[in-house]
Amino acid sequence: MKHFLRMFVQVCLYFYCKCLWRCLKFVVRKLTGRCELQRICYNTKPGAARTMKIEASLKGSKSKRLQTSVSVHPDAIEKTIDDIMELKRINPDINPQLGVSLQACLLQIVGYRNLIAEVEKLRREPYDSENPQHEEMLLKLWKCLKPNSPLKARISKQWCEIGFQGDDPKTDFRGMGLLGLYNLVYFAEWDTEIAQQVLSDSLHPKYSQLSKAEWEKKKFDKAIGYSFAIVGINITDLAYNLLVSGALKTHFYNVAPEAPTLTHFQQTFCYLMHEFHKFWIEEDPLDIMEFNRVREKFHKRILKQLQNPEMALCPHFAASESLINM
């Protein structure tokens, strides 16, 4: 009986707050002459803060048309904006900037959903050694990381030199499918110098050159390395979970002026790999068995950073200046 009463009170409180919120929105609109979407766009600067508020407003609307606007096809966004303006009785001639702002927000919101689908598709596709494209990517990974050491055979113990567990890397991609390979190749191809340095440090951590000024005080005689490729697949899993949980919205809405793409995700992976490497050295684990502890601590630190609506994980991938006037 006591449990039932508690649930009843919670339900009543929920509906009371919901009705109170709707009444408050109605009063504010009458006082300001602007709907909630207008107030958000005019009072919040572009980026994650604005887009996340717009997303919450549309999802929480009592109108089905507004609720479904966050999941339309990208080609339908322009018409969706017209529908929203019509539904909210907003004259586009008097408020031309509002349509531009809403379009930028919807492109980000819809783009994020589509990015999740694209990433999920790659994650579910297994590595196939009979597929020439898959094999070509794998060999490209080796060439980018070890340009001066030719691979003697496709099945070789040499793969352990870049952090795979055995003589055939295909078995290591099972957890993340092609997504793990895509990310590793992107890191090695587009951020080659850093990737090669991280690989070298993972094999010989006591000779690490990254953040040397900070780390030279530490004792590296017992520094523990790690398997570069395996950790890359693991960090891919971390990035994937940040994406699917919605935690990366803060970052992507701040760095992508329109729809976030797979390239944005891969750039984020590069950042996470670099940052995790530094974090691993700073943590100075006793042995590789501490990997899960260090990873979880790193994960929590990234999540905390992403709670800041101003956060952009990769400063060198900052948002386009075109956002300023949207």
From TrEMBL:
Where in the numbering of this chain does the ELMO domain appear? Answer: 133-306
Question: InterPro entries annotated for this entry?
Answer: ELMO_dom (IPR006816), ELMO_domain-containing (IPR050868)
Q: Name one GO molecular function term.
A: GTPase activator activity
Query: Superkingdom, according to UniProt?
Result: Eukaryota
- Note the PANTHER family from the entry: ELMO DOMAIN-CONTAINING PROTEIN 1, ENGULFMENT AND CELL MOTILITY
Question: What is the official name of this protein in its record?
Answer: ELMO domain containing 1
